[in-house]
Amino acid sequence: MKPSRRQVLRLSTAAGAAALLPPARARADEAAAPLPPAIAALKTMTDGVLPIGTDERRARVRRAQELLVAEGLDALVLSPGTSLEYFSGVRWSGGERLLAMVLTRTGDPAWVAPGFEKARAQELIPFGDDVRAWQEDESPYALAAGILRDRKAASGRVGVDEAMPFMFADGLAGALPAARVVSGTPVTAGCRMIKDAHELALMRRAGEITVRAFRAVFASLAAGMTQAQVAALCAAAMERQGMSGGALVLFGPDAAFPHGTTNPQPLKPGQVVLIDGGGRLFGYASDVTRTGVFGAPPTDRQRTVWDLVRKAQEAAFKAVRPGVEAQSVDAAARRVIEEGGFGPGYRFLTHRVGHGIGMDGHEWTYLVKGNTTKLRPGMCFSDEPGIYIPGEMGIRHEDVMTVTEGGADVLEKWTGTPEEPAVA
């Protein structure tokens, strides 16, 4: 069933990883256009799912303080971003005005906030009563330095979030001449890389929603659809299930570009369809790729490549266990693809085999050659080998896994085929 122009206009405002249609103003009757039956049949999957609570965030702060000691840091300063949200739940957009959480080895965190935003900050801050406000003609960095002096941490090693804007880190360093401002990644990544049972449950549900969305979208494909139209359907399918998200959609030769092309072509029977995307459930990400063949039986060539990528993905899963180096997982998948005739090196599998995932879609650490980080239980990764043949096709399979004592636990188990790639 090909969606009408009215339907596409209704969907084009949905969030997605791929570029959607240009903004358009839909009339009331356009907004009411029906979804394809497979997508309309989807039901919410978020009933009973709980967000991360304040007590859990306090436990994260305590773990961060343990790591401050272990890593020889005296304090950690976080500006708005994922790590601030991870530890406090605070989401903040303030541009060039600094809001910061200042954490030392003991006690509750202290906070620095713009004076005219102090009341809003206090509404959001879950714990820590020491909230110091700076006026427009004052330095927020001097205020943060004052907190550290009060807590006897102004002359040690002060870690900052690796994603902190340079102007904030530079301003803090200037206000702390006796301190050494360094990366706080050993603390932020040290906490965030290891997921607990609640985090894994959110990621597993997000993955289930994504797979069901993709299955409904594959069932709704029609010749002539654009990649933007299918991306909009992906966003709508996730929204029907209670999660915001979207997808990158690629057809036929365009799928040989792992992240898309600037000149996408409409869908034709017999082409591969690659859908890569996901969403966030209470802050936790999914990332799934399914590749199928539309409108005609797969050719021998398509099936051979599809099966080879699947074998490579399975090889990576089997390579995962505590204590192995991250690079060995990449090597396991790459070996299968090269032995299948698609090598050497990055010639056809043009990217690493996986990335860490959690609150950010891409985060520490990475399954890539040269990364000697040892895998630990609770780490989560994508496993996404692909074969990209210029001018012909690209095929990628992607699922999220977590490391357990017994090996890889795949969060989105599936038994798909080129004809039905999104079977859960």
Write the H/E string, N to C: HHHHEHEEHEHEHEHHHEEEEHHEEEEEEE
The average pLDDT is: 92
Say what oligomer this is.
Answer: single chain
The CA-CA distance between the termini, in Å, is 22 Å
The number of distinct structural domains comes to: 2
**Number of DSSP helical runs:** 13
Largest sheet: 6 strands, mixed
Question: Strand-residue fraction?
Answer: 15-25%
Rg is 24 Å
The CATH superfamily of the largest domain bears the name Creatinase/methionine aminopeptidase superfamily
Report the structural category. alpha+beta
Instruction: Report the count of strand segments.
Output: 17
| Largest sheet, spatial ordering of strands | 4-3-2-1-5-6
The dominant shape is: elongated
Helix content: 25-40%
Unreliable spans are 1-32
CATH top level label of the largest domain: Alpha Beta
CATH topology group of the largest domain: Creatine Amidinohydrolase
So, CATH architecture of the largest domain? Alpha-Beta Complex
Description:
The protein has helices at residues 5-11, 28-31, 37-40, 54-70, 82-88, 118-124, 140-150, 166-175, 185-192, 197-218, 227-240, 300-319, 326-339; strands at residues 75-78, 100-104, 110-114, 131-134, 157-160, 180-183, 244-251, 272-281, 284-285, 288-293, 354-356, 363-367, 380-383, 386-389, 393-396, 399-404, 407-410. The chain is elongated. A hairpin with a 5-residue loop joins strand 2 (100-104) and strand 3. It has two domains: 54-192, Creatine Amidinohydrolase, Chain A, domain 1 (3-Layer(aba) Sandwich), CATH 3.40.350.10; 197-410, Creatine Amidinohydrolase. A six-stranded mixed beta sheet has the order 4-3-2-1-5-6, with helices on both faces. Strands 7, 8, 9 and 10 form a four-stranded antiparallel beta sheet that branches. With 424 residues, the protein is of the alpha+beta class.
